[in-house]
Amino acid sequence: MSPKKIINKKSISFFEKYLNNPSPTGYEWEGQKIWMDYLKPYVHDFITDSYGTAVGVINPHSDYKVVIEGHSDEISWYVNYITDNGLIYVIRNGGSDHQIAPSKWVNIHTKKGVVRGVFGWPAIHTRKPGKEEQPSLTNIFIDVGAKNKKEVEKMGVHVGCVITYPDQFHVLNENKFVCRAIDNRAGGFIIAEVARLLYENKIKLPFGLYITNSVQEEIGLRGAEMITQTIKPNLAIVTDVCHDTSTPMIDKKAQGDNVMGSGPVISYAPAIQNKLRERIIETAEKKNIPFQRHASSRSTGTDTDAFAYSNGGVPSALISLPLRYMHTTVEMVQKDDIENVIRLIYQTLISIKKGESFSYFD
User: Fold this and answer.
1) What is the per-residue pLDDT across 162-191, written as a single tens digit (0 to 9) for each?
2) E strands of the chain, at which residues?
3) Predicted TM-score (pTM) of this structure
4) 3-74+180-351 homologous superfamily
5) Under CATH, to which class is 76-164 assigned?
6) Residue ranges of domains in the chain
């Protein structure tokens, strides 16, 4: 399978549509519908749950179950307080970065539709040199052009409305994909492409494959916690993003040395089952897929932890996509890395035998 033939025009069109659609934590269902519509020709069945996780299933009647997983939600804000003069203060929904907020456009989602606004900020002329206040959760605010609280409420805006950034998908220098929410809708894209390639290459897997797009990862792996109890998998391969640490102001001694364009990142952590990770590494070496390594301490901070510690313990591994500028509106990844993550998951799945045990004692 040539890397040049993995991502095609149809799949890029899907990725762009999927990224541009807002799917904040707790409100993922419209994005999930886009994802399921793309995946539908390549799977036999779907599972959904009451919070919005979606699973495409190949060979649903097989007793041996393998999960490949990404998460579908994006960081956002909630309306928290509306002042008498019509300005809006916010709280986080996930790990939203307060430092990038000033001067950004926002979409406030209401029952009446989207209300546009901006994160305002005092002009440089009005700030005292040497004593400038930095953006923080207590001082960033949204201006929707209203003169008072009553006018804001008439627009349909109220406490609890979710707020997203409208930034759209772009291709930079031909092979860099830039958008908000690449963390981790890139994962949903990757696992959907694996399913497509299995179908197009007429691969008959000797197990059930559960292509899982979980919700609510950004606030504590909640969607994965729920769906793993439904699926009860035998194995789980999770894909998420990790930091490209080659840009300024990142300490490699603390964050590791991973670079966009150098291939998938294979993790080491207590939640990573060693035999499954070694299978992934052996596959990469055998198929000449470039890869990098990353060590975590107590946890991976990804849905891998939720799968690994569920159902009495599920052998789990993590393959990450190097990403620049995480939790900003200009998250950046390289096309070659995406294709190589797809190749690595695809080839690893092909290597797994029916009922194969990854126990240390077999």
Assistant:
1) 999 999 999 999 999 999 999 999 999 999
2) 45-48, 54-58, 65-71, 76-82, 87-93, 105-110, 113-120, 141-143, 162-164, 170-172, 176-179, 208-214, 235-243, 265-268, 292-295, 316-323, 331-334
3) 0.97
4) Zn peptidases (3.40.630.10)
5) mainly beta
6) 3-74+180-351, 76-164
